[in-house]
């Protein structure tokens, strides 16, 4: 696994706490762009090139996670979720609290099933009945290490599962951030190209709204991940995306509540992929949306395309994707932008 990709995957950065990821993105974008800044909202905005058209490439840098809410008298930590996380993936997970005192490891626990009543065992344990155990026996002991409001992430992990199949924390959407960096290394067009690592996507697509308003691009390209359906229990009619079968070209999100990609943009992206023999899949999304949903409605409307890397186990402690799909996204992005600028 590439060193930079691994660095992005393991970095902490839940929504609103993206500083560490922003520092990596700013450092890397400085290598290829003419200017880089972090705006008031926390977005990293880089600019490369000159021309009459403005192109915006966006990838959100925040991840799902938790924040410390309450500490009990006997030393257990209660938390809120930040972003969409199913309660079913939480129990027994190792987490890291990013505290001023340093990283604090913890385990998400709850009342053990051995001590639950028959009725309790029939019910899903919800996150508000869970806690984090950091091995302390009192509130006073915890407060020496942890503060209310501290960021909590899933234990960092990243690596190669098999061949081109990679795993890691925060693939949504650090894989998209890495993809954007690779595009900016190669892009060379007569246009102002803006690379934006957006903040707070997981909690309302917020950074994309502010940054796209400021840039007011002629065309925007959103890089993100989406659910792969190539696992047991999912029918193809529900989700046909497969890892290793190419980049996903999104047509519509959240049954129309999110982005409905303009037909001209749909045809441009599909035709470009076919002309250049770039592996791709058509992505029709029933649930969930990307930064595109706010970008394409900004100002008087912005032509917006969306490319998604098919990913297994999104919004969990570890996700899985194929690095070749990401490369297809890089290749297609470059070709699409070349056509837009002509």
Structural class: alpha+beta
Number of helices: 9
Mean pLDDT over all positions: 96
Measured as a percent range, the helix fraction is 25-40%
Low-pLDDT stretches: none
Query: What share of the residues does DSSP label as strand, in percent?
Result: 25-35%
How is the biggest beta sheet arranged?
Answer: 11 strands, mixed
Distance between the termini: 35 Å
Folded structure, characterized:
The chain is α+β, with helices and mostly antiparallel strands and 342 residues long. The chain has helices at residues 3-10, 19-29, 118-121, 139-143, 171-186, 206-215, 263-275, 292-295, 323-341, and strands at 35-38, 44-48, 54-60, 65-71, 76-82, 94-99, 102-109, 131-133, 151-154, 158-162, 165-168, 192-198, 219-227, 247-252, 280-284, 303-312, 319-322. A hairpin with a 5-residue loop joins strand 1 and strand 2 (44-48).
Write the layout of secondary structure elements.
Blueprint: H1 3-10, H2 19-29, E1 35-38, E2 44-48, E3 54-60, E4 65-71, E5 76-82, E6 94-99, E7 102-109, H3 118-121, E8 131-133, H4 139-143, E9 151-154, E10 158-162, E11 165-168, H5 171-186, E12 192-198, H6 206-215, E13 219-227, E14 247-252, H7 263-275, E15 280-284, H8 292-295, E16 303-312, E17 319-322, H9 323-341
Parallel strand pairs: 3-12, 3-13, 13-16, 14-15
Antiparallel strand pairs: 1-2, 2-12, 4-5, 4-9, 5-8, 6-7, 6-9, 7-8, 10-11, 11-17, 14-16, 16-17
Helix pairs in contact: 1-5, 5-9, 7-9
């Amino acid at each position: 696994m590439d060193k930079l990709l691994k660095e992005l995957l393991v970095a902490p950065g839940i929504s609103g706490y993206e500083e560490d990821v922003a520092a990596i993105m700013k450092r890397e974008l400085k290598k290829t762009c003419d200017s880089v800044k972090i705006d008031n909202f926390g977005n990293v905005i880089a600019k490369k090139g000159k021309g009459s058209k403005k192109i915006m490439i966006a990838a959100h840098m925040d991840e799902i996670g938790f924040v410390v809410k309450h500490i009990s008298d006997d030393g257990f930590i209660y938390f809120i979720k930040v972003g969409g996380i199913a309660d079913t993936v939480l129990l027994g997970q190792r987490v890291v609290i990013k505290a001023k005192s340093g990283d604090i490891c913890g385990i998400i626990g709850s009342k053990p099933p051995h001590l639950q009543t028959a009725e309790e065992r029939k019910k899903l344990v919800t996150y508000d009945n869970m806690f984090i155990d950091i091995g302390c026996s009192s509130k006073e002991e915890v407060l020496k290490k942890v503060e209310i409001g501290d960021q909590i992430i899933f234990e960092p992990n990243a690596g190669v599962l098999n061949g081109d199949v990679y795993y890691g924390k925060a693939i949504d959407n650090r894989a998209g951030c890495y993809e954007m960096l690779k595009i900016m290394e190669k892009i060379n067009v007569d246009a102002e190209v803006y690379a934006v690592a957006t903040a707070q996507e997981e909690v309302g697509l917020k950074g994309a709204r502010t940054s796209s308003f400021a840039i007011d691009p002629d065309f925007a390209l959103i890089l993100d991940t989406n659910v792969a359906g190539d696992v047991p229990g999912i029918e193809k009619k529900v989700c046909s995306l497969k890892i290793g079968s190419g980049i996903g070209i999104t047509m519509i999100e959240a049954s129309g509540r999110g982005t409905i990609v303009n037909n001209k943009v749909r045809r441009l992206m599909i035709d470009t992929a076919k002309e250049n023999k770039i592996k791709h899949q058509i992505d029709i999304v029933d649930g969930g949306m990307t930064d595109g949903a706010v970008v394409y409605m900004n100002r008087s409307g912005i032509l917006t395309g969306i490319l998604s890397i098919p990913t297994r186990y999104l919004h969990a402690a570890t996700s899985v994707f194929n690095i070749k799909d990401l490369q297809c996204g890089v290749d297609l992005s470059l070709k699409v932008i070349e056509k837009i600028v002509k």
